[in-house]
């Protein structure tokens, strides 16, 4: 019923231009904007009226969003295919309360881990932690992939202004050894700390990279003692110990923390080292404030709910299969990669949590790039392409950047992009401009066709006052909850990722075929995989 009402409503507003809404309502910006802490969201440049939001809220209520939000925070096993609660929000909750999972107060383990992180990060930062030859740590290498990589990478870059000048952080995620060697060429094993970050400790890329680095380290320093240089973050401590990591050097993770939601745990260790534990706690605090806003605000004034429902509006009622995130801040350079995993690994599904086939669109393809760079690559498609692509512009207003003029141009560019997407340019307007410039009738006609831009393309503008640990924490939590809201509406389990498993299962057969002297037709029944294996083997001289 709610779905049908939204469809009918979409029909009735489909031809209204946003500009007309603005003309008829001078308070539209005030109506469709809100703040949470230092985050300000303007969502007035959307194809919505107050009725749209009321209908979307009704849909959310019908899909039991308020109940699901409560379940998220209280430890209900929302990840039903793995029988687990989803409690990344507990990681950023003040530790003085209790939350029971299987009869254990998980807040005690969280508190202990934060204490362990503080002791460790302080020692690295004040140089009391020494490498095996007595030198302090200068380089940190995070070895991990997916959620064990993107969170640390994104946040360390975002807050790099807070990092000490004598510490560098590197990231090895992929198995392509080109990158591994490039990093090793920059570091000295005597002054390097390796953080092996893997919830499962079975992820092939991370296990392979970790093993290679351990061999490299042992050979370089002629020692088998890893204790001053290798630590692990994992929910599988036995596997870390089996690899040679000392028990005291293992930071725990838990089943109830999904990989893509793990930056708030010890997976955030590289960030904690780079910005210091006080700043790390502020990062958690920012996320917690967004949690409280999400949990306790009305749906109509709830930032993650609004962002989530606007996405639903376009994906399911305007057939938008894509959306773009364009941060106008170098600090958020890796946000798009982070959000790709968050969004697409969570909601890229076509089976409902109850196991039924879903017959509506779910997760759109998310892409993005920093502004202004995006303006000079894919924004052409946003403005005149055949696809309807809503955009989130993210601005960081006050920066450490002393070049005020640069900052004005940066922020102004974002505003001009959202305005251009909304207003577009009609054929008549373009024609009149060309005529004024003295062009012939034919030239005016041809060029006006090329220059006219449809407009009426929606965007959100999200403004962070400045890039602080607290504001970054709030920003990430905002997008986490937005993803959750959409998962609830689509009725998917946003916390599993079974599709990823298939490729992992097929890999061992292929690796076996690479080593085998037999032709691969014995293992594979498609000529493409078979042909590619043989071609690769012939190039490598294994044929
Ligand atoms: O890609 C699948 C995945 O399981 C992600 O969800 C996860 O973030 C990543 O692999 C890494 O997993 P782990 O931390 O267990 O190595």
> Taking all residues together, what is the mean pLDDT?
96
Total domain count: 3
Give the bound compounds.
6-O-phosphono-beta-D-fructofuranose
Radius of gyration: 26 Å
Quaternary status = single chain
Structural class by helix and strand composition = alpha/beta
Name the poorly predicted regions. none
Give the percentage of residues in beta strands.
Answer: 5-15%
Keywords:
binds 6-O-phosphono-beta-D-fructofuranose; alpha/beta; Rossmann fold; 5-stranded parallel beta sheet; 543 residues; 3 domains; 6-stranded mixed beta sheet; 12% strand; 50% helix
Structure description:
This protein has 543 residues and is an alpha/beta fold. It folds into 3 domains: 2-62 and 297-423 and 457-490, Glucose-6-phosphate isomerase like protein, domain 1 (Rossmann fold, 3-Layer(aba) Sandwich), CATH 3.40.50; 88-282, Glucose-6-phosphate isomerase like protein, domain 1 (Rossmann fold, 3-Layer(aba) Sandwich), CATH 3.40.50; 498-542. The protein has 22 helices and 13 strands. The chain has a 6-stranded mixed beta sheet, with helices on both faces. The radius of gyration is 26 Å and the shape is globular. The model has no long low-confidence stretch (mean pLDDT 96). Bound molecules: 6-O-phosphono-beta-D-fructofuranose. 6-O-phosphono-beta-D-fructofuranose is lined by residues 145-148, 198-200, 203, 206, 259-260, 345, 497, 500. Residues 145-148, 198-200, 203, 206, 259-260, 345, 497, 500 line the site of 6-O-phosphono-beta-D-fructofuranose.
How do you describe this structure in short?
By secondary structure, the protein is α/β, with parallel strands linked by helices.
